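User: Hey, my collaborator sent me this sequence without any context and asked if I could get a structure. I don't really work with proteins. Can you help?
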Amino acid sequence: MKPRPAVIELVVSDMAATLAFYRRLGLEVPSDADNGPHAEAELGGGLRVAWDTEDTIRSFDPGWSPPTGGGHRMAIAFACDSPGEVDAAWAELTDAGYDGHLPPWDAFWGMRYAVVHDPDGTPVDLFAPLSPNHG
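Assistant: No problem. I've predicted the 3D structure and written it out in structure-token form, which is a compact way to encode the shape of the chain:
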């Protein structure tokens, strides 16, 4: 059997703040997970997202440290039903105080796109196909 994707894992500095962000995007995470070292949510199709605190990672990898130098190596993308939903999700998240990295724009590849950072700086893309009559 070949390995298959099962879990996307994010290392977080503040579990409660991170889970509050992802709940705003519709992920169902129990509220009692806010104070725990690990949390998970089902994404469908057998795929899950998991969050572990920095202390949890250091418990088995003592030399671990957060990346430095800016930039990112991963992002999570959330599909929206319409360009207007991209704008609404962007507004809700930035109005709640989350860092809006790239405001909504019509991308050359035919999608409405925006990028918000979660509390640890992980880029979260919001996207939807542009309407056929967009011009």
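In plain terms: The chain has three helices and seven strands. You can pass these tokens on to your collaborator as they are.
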